[in-house]
Amino acid sequence: MKQKKLMTQIPALNGEVIIPGDKSISHRSIMFGAIAEGRTVVSNFLMGEDCLSTISCFKKLGVEIEQTKHEVIINGKGLNGLKEPSEILNVGNSGTTIRLILGILSGRPFHSVLIGDESIGKRPMTRVTNPLRQLGATIHGRRNAEFTPLSVTGGNLTGTTYKLPVASAQVKSALLFAGLQAEGKTTILEPEKTRDHTERMIRTFGGKVTEENDAVIIEGGQSLRGTNIHVPGDISSAAFFMVAGAIVPNSEIKLKNVGLNHTRTGIIDVMKQMGADMEIIPAFTKEDEEPIGDIIIRTSSLKGTTISGALIPRLIDEIPIIALLATQAEGRTVIKDAEELKVKETNRIDTVVNELSQLGADIEATPDGMIVTGKKELKGGSAVSSHGDHRIGMMLAIAAAICDEEVLLENEEAISVSYPNFFTHLENLID
Ligand code: S3P
Question: So where does 3-phosphoshikimate get bound (predicted)?
Answer without folding.
Answer: 23-24, 28, 168, 170, 317, 344
